[in-house]
Amino acid sequence: MTQNSAQPGSKPQPNRLSHNGLIDQSRSLNFTWNGTQYQGHPGDTLASALLANGQRFVARSFKYHRPRGIFSAGPEEPSALVQLRSGAAQEPNTRATVAELFDGLTATSQNHRGSLEGDILALNDWLAPFLSAGFYYKTFMWPAAFWEKVYEPFIRASAGLGKLSMQADPDIYDHGYLHCDLLVIGAGPAGLIAALEAGRAGARVILADEDFRPGGRLNAETHAIDDAPGHAWATRAIAELASLDNVRLMTRTTVYGAFDHGVYGALERCTDHLPTSGGKPRQVLWRLYTKRALLCAGATERSIAFANNDRPGIMLAGAVRTYANRYGVTPGTRVAVLTNNDDGWRTAQDLQSAGVTVTALIDTRSGVSPPKNADRIETGCAVANTRGRRGLGQISLTNGAVIDADCLAVAGGWSPNVHLSSHQRGRPTWRDDIAAFVPGSELPQGMSVAGAANGTPTLAAAMAEAQTTTRALLQDLGHSATGADLPRASDEPASISAFWHVKAKGRAWVDLQNDVTAKDIYQSQKEAFRSVELLKRYTTLGMATDQGKTANVLGLAILAEAAGQTIPETGTTIFRPPYTPVPIGALAGRARGKDFRPYRLTPSHKWAEENGATFVETGPWMRAQWFARPGETGWRDSVDREVRMTRNSVGICDVTTLGKIDIQGRDAAEFLNHVYANGFAKLPVGKVRYGIMLREDGICYDDGTTARLSETHFVMTTTTVNAVAVFRNLEFARQCLWPDLDVHLISTTDGWAQYAVAGPNARALLSKVVDDLDLSNEAFPFMACTECTVFGGTPARLFRISFSGELAYEIAVPTRFGDSMIRALMEVGKEFDVTPYGTEALGVMRIEKGHFAGNELTGQTTAAMLGLGGMVSKKKDSIGLPLSQRSEMIRDDDLRLVGFHPVDKGIDLNAGAHFLTKGDPEDMAHDQGWMTSVAWSPELGHSIGLGFLKNGQNRMGETLRAFDPVRGKDTAVTVVSPHHIDPEGARQRG
Amino acid sequence: MAEIKLTAAPVLGTNLSIGTNTIQERDDLALVSIATPLDQDQDSQADLARALSAGWGLDLPAPTRASSAGDAHAIQTTADQMLLIFPHEGPDGNAVVQSKLDGAGYTTEQTDVWLVLEIAGPETLAALERLCPMDLRGVPDGTATRTVMEHMGALVLRHSAERFWLLTASSSAGSFLHAVEQSYRNVT
């Protein structure tokens, strides 16, 4: 091995090899690790740079706080989880093996108290006999009083690895949508061949790869393609793909989930490799709509279980090759190799070629003849144990030999990355010849698999399979392949003889991320947690950020061995998205803070802001709740004033938010007659009628008015919150129930700015607004409507309807005039001391008047309960009529909407209180109903309420308890008419 | 008191440039929905076709495709209804259409229901990829489709790869514009 010569001003990197690998050693990047500055090069990951600088010990394990190193060179990393960046941008639990190095990167280790080297929680390792699988369930049973006060805080403090910054994420994230004919997942040799085939054929292709350098194992191995290094061929392939307009090449992009109907989720890391995101999205969560998908996700190497196989310096053999060949780094200076397959031999070969001392090549198979690429060759034996305090120093073999090694490369065989192929519950199938699971027959819709992911691990075979599969897909899609030849490549030796576990004294680690040992798996089996799903929950095998990518198959094999059954009989756990972790920020995308959801504003919004409005969310709408005036000390002052001024003179309320549906057609009247419970067939032109709508089950779900503008033209008004539901129901009725009726619907909610003008001076005010229209009671009586003009020619609609109980109108103008209209109304209203009023005053006045609203429409409310049973016409068919007449729905002694006054007028009522007859016990068996709405009535000078009371219509004057255990109140109330004011309706008809 | 006249305001009055891209509110258009009467004698469709042709030079639109003539467009929005968009100022677009249809369809004024944003520029498709679930790259010019963007209903009309109209509810126009603007900013 030759160390690289340091550049001027740079520190030597002791484990950097002289050959460049695929990094740019002509440039250096500074980074800090636990406060110490080091250097790496463009093309490095944090892991390769740490190894180059001799940093083997980089983490503490989850449970026992054992020293851990870098185990892999890719997304499967279970051990080297670190914190990147600092301050608000700090991100815990990041895999060092996929963190691209940039100048100025700050990284720290995690999960230790004190320094990494001096972690006091390493004590846990000494307590290991007490902390085996399931110890939580056994240990924290008693005393029960300790559960919340002692155990939970303790467990919570110990749980987790890294630390959150507890500050808002300073970066932004985005979502996006892409479409393609063929999605190729993975840009290794198989994926590149597939993308080239499809791209040249003219198909729309997305090629996604999680790495920042596409090429997959071609970048990590010394394979030749067309007599050139494999990575050089990959570079040429990428250049060709980049030149094709129909191919979208997405690097740093992980396809993390296969969802229904060919939809895939992908996470693109846009700026994680840069010092700052520069105000652009750090990551984009893509939804990929595909006609076909080809999974070329390769394979993940797995370990072998033997005692103390977790020390820093013990790594996967393929990862050791990656560091040597791609990054120009050797993970050790005296490397031993343990393998159960031919593939492991290449590690010794590549290291020796790079000048690294290989102290031993140990093959668990007997009768094989590995090439002589190591100081000693051992066959038919394995590693029994290891030594070394903070990193590997020695290994001892099952044949008793002891060998010096500061790195042990373990080749336990490759597991195809079947994950995405199983995201819709398809079960992978076991293949004995490669000792691995491969995708089963039930793949997600439109998905095919090729290459190592399909159990075709060797180079030439993988490329050939990718070509054949892609050509079949292209034919399906109606494209013709160009028929280009495959590049020349050969198949490397790949024979394997399954070998999982060296049974010897000492803890043999299966899942490095969760500190699960072979003994834990035996214990789970012994304690009857034998199903693989139970094993996972009991031992935590395969949980957390790596989801057992390097551990699962090994764990299953040991479970199978313990249970005396085969691996396919043991089965696998269910694979679920995401394949690798997806940050919550990326899932949220832009939906943060005020951008969490859209807002709907009325055209008077700006004017309302200028006039002291406080707004309330009603669905997505922002409505003025009240308008504060100088000197008012709280909302009640404003609301009481608005009610008084309206009832004394005139008030104006923006009711634009009410749903408006334009209904036209020869049969529109008949249609309305079917959708409203009350009659509409004979509504005259120029009139408005109040109506209630029932669900099919007879429950009342909405009310409103509908105006008839011509024989064939109606305008329906719905409540604000039910506008969409009503429209949807009308469409259903129109299209599915009565398709033979000539009826057409369109929403006009946003097209009109509509204002309620209410109070004894409403007519006087409007007479200054509308052009040439006789507003007298005779000419324009209660429930009249007309199209008209206002302020000298602006088109408008005028309805004489009232929610407040006052003489009232609603006047609508096209939205573009809405702002101008409210300003004009207020201007001409000055002489009447007009007031704007908000939803609170609206609520007070409707409670005073006894109108029901959302509080009363609970989804269990019948028309009879509202006192409107008589409105449900039995003379015609309407939606909900048959079921509304069930005996329990119309019984006379059921709940009825009535009013309530406190006996002591100084006491405020509360909604939610339940009514009890005096002397009855306070339980649900004696419940008489509940208070739905309350308000302080400026008109009456005390609190009033509406509520449902059993047999309420026959209990006027009765005194009841309004019992409210939540607030600790028990108030005597008198039952009154729900119409607290003007029960005869003289005002609104005046 | 001086005589009061109401003044019309655009929904947002947007006229933005982001790099070499532009976002502009088109408030010089009228939008009117036309519903075809449920046919008893098969004549109403033909009457409507004649009126569209005579009035605006438009054919009846096919599903997902706008029928266009200059800045006038007809877009099929439901099985029985289309949206007619044509250059016109003033709140009387519905009356104009009614006069030309002469009873061949039921019309409803829709101008103030919608915000029409014209977006244009080289990053337009990239911006729309961050916003719109529909495939807008792989479709021909003249494609018109209903969709949802950032939870808001919308109608998209592709004039070219670099020029689109986005129609959305006027009440949530501010939120919609923010979404469009942010999309451009994220890709430029």
Outline the secondary-structure elements.
The complex is a heterodimer of chains A (990) and B (188).
Chain A: E1 29-33, E2 36-40, H1 46-52, E3 59-60, E4 67-68, E5 81-84, E6 91-95, E7 105-108, H2 123-126, H3 135-139, H4 146-158, E8 173-185, H5 189-200, E9 205-208, E10 224-225, E11 228-229, H6 230-242, E12 247-250, E13 253-258, E14 263-269, E15 283-295, E16 299-301, E17 314-316, H7 317-325, E18 334-339, H8 343-353, E19 357-363, E20 377-379, E21 383-387, E22 394-397, E23 402-404, E24 407-411, E25 414-416, E26 429-431, E27 436-438, E28 447-449, H9 459-477, E29 509-511, E30 516-517, H10 518-526, H11 532-539, H12 552-563, H13 567-570, H14 584-588, E31 600-601, H15 605-610, E32 613-618, E33 621-627, H16 635-648, E34 651-654, E35 659-664, H17 668-675, E36 688-694, E37 700-710, E38 713-718, H18 723-737, E39 744-747, E40 752-758, H19 762-766, E41 785-790, E42 794-799, E43 808-814, H20 818-829, E44 835-836, H21 839-849, H22 881-884, H23 887-890, E45 895-902, E46 914-916, E47 929-937, E48 942-950, E49 959-964, E50 969-976, H24 986-989
Parallel strand pairs in A: 1-7, 8-9, 8-15, 9-12, 15-28, 17-24, 18-19, 18-24, 19-20, 31-33, 34-44
Antiparallel strand pairs in A: 1-2, 3-4, 5-6, 5-7, 10-11, 13-14, 14-15, 16-25, 21-22, 22-23, 26-27, 29-30, 32-33, 34-40, 35-38, 35-39, 36-37, 37-38, 40-43, 41-42, 42-43, 45-48, 45-50, 46-49, 47-48, 49-50
Helix pairs in contact in A: 5-6, 5-9, 7-8, 10-11, 10-12, 16-21
Chain B: E1 15-18, E2 21-25, E3 29-35, H1 43-56, E4 67-69, E5 72-78, E6 81-87, H2 93-101, E7 106-109, E8 114-120, H3 124-129, E9 144-149, E10 152-160, E11 163-169, H4 173-187
Antiparallel strand pairs in B: 1-2, 2-8, 3-6, 3-7, 4-5, 5-6, 8-11, 9-10, 10-11
